[in-house]
Amino acid sequence: MGYLVGQFIGGALAAVILTLIISGFVRPFARPNNRVWIASLLSLITLTILGAIGAADGGNLNFSKAFGTYVLPQLAVFLVDLLQTRGAAVRKSSKPVTALARVEPTMGNPIELEAATASEAAVATTASDRDWHGRNLGLEATSRGGSGQTSRNFILRHWRGESSLGWSYWGIAFLGNIFALVAIIVLSLIFTTEKGYDPAPLFWLNVLTWGLLSIIVIWQVVGTWRSATHHAERRMKLGKGAGWATAAKLALVLGILRFVGDFAQTGALQLGEYYDMAWRGDPRLPAYSMRVMRDGTEIEIAGGIKFGLVADFQRVIMASPRIRVVHLHSFGGRVGEAEKLRNEIASRGLVTYVSARCESACTLAYAGGRERWITASGGLGYHGPAFPGLTPEEKSAAVANWKAMYAGTGISSSFLDRGLAVPSTEMWRPTVQELVAAKAITNVSTGSEFAISGYGTNPTADDLIAPFQKSLPVLVAIQSRLPNDYEKIKRVIFDGFTSGATETKIITDFRAQLLPLIEFHKARADDQVLIEYARVMIDQYQALGRSSPTLCYQYAAFGSNVSISGMIPAAITQREIALQDRAILTSAERSPVPEAITNALLSRVQQVMIKRFGAERMAMFQLEKVDPAKHADYCAITAAFYQEIVSMRPVEAGAILRAMHTR
Known about the structure:
25 helices
């Protein structure tokens, strides 16, 4: 009920203002009763059109709804206006003519009458001159053409310059500003949609606002300019200066220049931006895409956050009601659409997840998650709002408004103040520790909880393998020398991505395809590559022996089936990665070394090892399972074994290592 009352009052206010404006233009050309009908009809038509445009969602104009909104308020305004007009006509026709109002013919001498009239006019002029300052900086304006009759229409009277200069300059300016303010408020109410952010009504609101302001300014300036001209003419007839008229015209010129400057710096920029947002697909923002993953339980939103995204998101959710997790990968977009997305996520109790980047307006959508996850390599980015033509005051208001949108998310207020204070041309990317402390995130993912994401909109197989190539140059060597194997590796990554596999699962499948290939070609690499590999293995065993003897034992006994990721110093890992590349590039058919020779060389190494460590300690290498107390010893002897091999002549070391890799 309250909504209907408010709607009626708002509609009545709009109808009153528009009817008054139209009446002002129609009054000189129509009789009073006809003026009421014409003004009300034109007002209703205009309000219906504006209302349909203002409430348009997705570009659909609902004229019937707009007509139903404004017909009753306009009817009420029509009835009041009609009753007032008829009442005024009745009062005018019934007014008695008094003796003072009657004009009687004179019988005196015409020459004496003419002289008296001239004398009275001179006295009146003198009196008028004396109280000039008391009558708002101007003599009573004469009508156009010297007829002595001024227009009863307030709008036309000012337009023709028939009002005094003081009233035109100060009074009309004040009333015009008040009217403009009320009209803008009414337009804002008309173009407020129930579905939130929509650039089409915002565009029309700005068009009508600037159009209305332009009409008011032109009306004010032209009328005041003409009034100043009439004022100067009257002063010149009296032999006086026209300084006030000149000053008023100069002020008008400066006012026009300021208005044009404001439009160029604000209005034109914002109209262009709203037009692009509403009808050109917001071309300055990248396109967005949505991908449903993991049997319809997760969805990824990637790209620019712009109008239409939430409507598409709602359609996808309707088709996949089992969705529980929303992946976000975006460098930002429109705050209004991000707020709608945040509300949609929060109302459905969904989890939000960022594996790569979520910045600017994206962080607002991310904040709507019931749980907010991020990977250790992912990140959030914050900065203040930006829009063409915003003044510093408007930017401050926009920051406060944006911060208010985070209400209820539990994120630290000081954290938001810091993030939103960053200029829009920069970006603050807090650490994971800072995000946890500010409650901007609730959990850190290991990559095994959710489907892999964060590769942008509609990535190809080449897009997906590109990050792997940056960290593993061996893939470039495989692509050039082993194109068929390269395509198989690429297919493993792409299939995992499209099926919604987790990052951990895809990496495991990737390693299962890559490592055997490297091992095969390692056995075919040149001797120096094999010796360098052995030196890397020695350093790995020594590093693991210091940090985790058991892991070192497992790695030495079971090889590549054991993951040592994160346990080896980065410098050693980089040496191994570089050697993988060399192994592929130097891989070639080699003349086989007779087994008798390799056995003899290995036997020589074993004798040295027995002599150094004793037969009893060497015997543990024959056991299926070694006592944990001996894991450190096992690791140290393995490193010494490879040290003995690399100390031999390169051709001998290469033969032993090649045989070991082949087996």
